[in-house]
Amino acid sequence: QVQLVESGGGSVQAGGSLELSCTRSGNTYPAWCMGWFRQAPGKEREEVASIGSGGTTKYADSVKGRFTISQDNAKKNLYLQMNNLKSEDTAMYYCRYYYCVLALSPRTGYWGQGTQVTVSS
User: Fold this and answer.
1) In terms of C-beta density within 10 A (0-12 exposed, 13-18 middle, 19 or more buried), how is residue 78 classed?
2) Sheet holding 18-26, edge to edge
3) Distance between CA 43 and CA 53 in Å, rounded?
4) Paired sense of beta strands 10-13 and 115-120, if any
5) Most buried of 22, 43, 101, 117 (most Cβ within 10 A)?
6) DSSP 85
């Protein structure tokens, strides 16, 4: 089993910054990825950024140049540094640990409970 706990969300004005953290405990599996996803009210959950088992990162076009995903050396903790936040970044942000090849299958892997990010303009 795997447990994921997010923290770091909050309210910030447009142009501000926040850093999200995700602490992973439990089993570790080879070829699994970690990523940040978000869901705004009335919208589908979308991938924000991810990092593969080899350290390769991927970002949604909407956050490129503003968000940075990183992991600690043990690959247990995941971070998302969010700069120049915009009102459209407002959403619940979720941490996910999943088999990389099943990235598009949201029912697979493990999800945290989420942390709310609210950006006011």
Assistant:
1) buried
2) 2-7, 18-26, 77-82, 67-71
3) 29
4) parallel
5) 22
6) -
Q: CA-based diameter of the chain, in Å?
A: 42
Q: For residue 1, how many other CB atoms are within 10 A of its CB? A: 6
pLDDT for 10: 97
Q: What does the H/E/C string look like for 25-65?
A: EECCCCCEEEEEEEECCCCCCEEEEEECCCCCEEECCCCCC
Euclidean distance between CA atoms 71 and 79, whole angstroms: 6
Amino acid identity for residue 101 in this structure: V
Per run of 10 residues, the mean pLDDT along the chain (length 121 residues) is: 96 98 94 96 95 93 98 92 98 96 89 98 90
Which pLDDT belongs to residue 37? 97
Angstrom distances, CA of residue 16 to CA of 6, 61, 114? 20, 19, 20
Phi first, then psi: what are they for 25, rounded to 5°? -135, 160
pLDDT at position 98: 95
The token pair at 84 is: 């120049």
Confidence (pLDDT) at 74: 86
